[in-house]
Amino acid sequence: MAAAYVYMRRRHQNIRRNRLLRDYDNPLDYLDDFDIIRRYRLSRPMIIDLCRRFDNDLHRPTMRSRALPVSLQIMAALRFFATGSFQLVNADVHNISRSSVSRCVRDVTQCLVNVCNQHIIMPTDAASLEIIKRGFYEISDFPNVVGAVDGTHVRIKSPPVDEHIFVNRKNFHSINWPGATHDAFIWSNSTVCELFENRTISDGWLLGDSGYPVRPWLLTPVLNPTTRKQQSYNGAHMRTRNVVERSFGVLKARFRCIDTSAGTLLYSALMCCRIVVAVAVLHNLCIDNRMPLPPDINDFPDHGHIAGPAYNGPLNDGAIVRERLINGRF
């Protein structure tokens, strides 16, 4: 019996044991709900939902070593979106390599871009537009408004190709399709503009600043108002349209990677565009789920707003509509 015991013990000691790998730190396991929202902008249930939603796209089985869990990939990307911090800082926070952070940002960004049409939508049905009109009317009694338009700039590094067309009026490189492009030109080539041009949305006005043409469905301020009615119209227009500037400020406060306070997006121009779309998707998800705003939101202006010259082109066929509104309403 003793000999048999010694034999079995030696045989057991010689059996090759699988190498035990330490599990990656998962912030979902050790952060409370408040800290998760503060650091990643999304709640725990929202992050878990993204993990389920993008599991097939982000899960990578490998025989060489353990792949990053989907949850850690998403949280590393969310941390970048929320802070705009350098990849090395993000890597240290999540105990992963700098190259892994880069892949996380790239892959999660692409996942969000793939679903953008589900979350960035201009309503076209009458019921939804009526709700929007009521919301705008409550701001300053401006009737029939279904939206407000404006542009904002996102600072990027100097592109290696066509560098000059990305330099904006404040002399830094930015994404605004690209930085040197006028708001009116960007608007005329947008999908939302097409919805009004082809009468998919046939009832309702958009509000824009003087950089846009005045159209039957796009109302701008009166330059150099001379009557009390025109001044009243301009005041209501400014207060109502201001919601779009505040929206840019809220978006950039929530996801600092696209704000100048976090520095410059150190990616290609195409990747920067994808990041902008990705954070817009996340921002709308936060609104739908009533996520709290960052604590300093009231002191956070849109640093990317660059006032441009007044529109001086041929498209001003909405002047009669605007004048009729001024005389009949204000």
UniProtKB/TrEMBL annotation:
<dbReference type="GO" id="GO:0005737">
    <property type="term" value="C:cytoplasm"/>
</dbReference>
<dbReference type="InterPro" id="IPR045249">
    <property type="entry name" value="HARBI1-like"/>
</dbReference>
<keyword id="KW-0479">Metal-binding</keyword>
<feature type="domain" description="DDE Tnp4">
    <location>
        <begin position="174"/>
        <end position="284"/>
    </location>
</feature>
<keyword id="KW-0540">Nuclease</keyword>
<dbReference type="InterPro" id="IPR026103">
    <property type="entry name" value="HARBI1_animal"/>
</dbReference>
<comment type="function">
    <text>Transposase-derived protein that may have nuclease activity. Does not have transposase activity.</text>
</comment>
<protein>
    <recommendedName>
        <fullName>Putative nuclease HARBI1</fullName>
    </recommendedName>
</protein>
<keyword id="KW-0378">Hydrolase</keyword>
<dbReference type="GO" id="GO:0046872">
    <property type="term" value="F:metal ion binding"/>
</dbReference>
<keyword id="KW-0963">Cytoplasm</keyword>
<dbReference type="InterPro" id="IPR027806">
    <property type="entry name" value="HARBI1_dom"/>
</dbReference>
<dbReference type="GO" id="GO:0004518">
    <property type="term" value="F:nuclease activity"/>
</dbReference>
<keyword id="KW-0539">Nucleus</keyword>
<dbReference type="GO" id="GO:0005634">
    <property type="term" value="C:nucleus"/>
</dbReference>
<dbReference type="GO" id="GO:0016787">
    <property type="term" value="F:hydrolase activity"/>
</dbReference>
<dbReference type="Pfam" id="PF13359">
    <property type="entry name" value="DDE_Tnp_4"/>
</dbReference>
<comment type="similarity">
    <text>Belongs to the HARBI1 family.</text>
</comment>
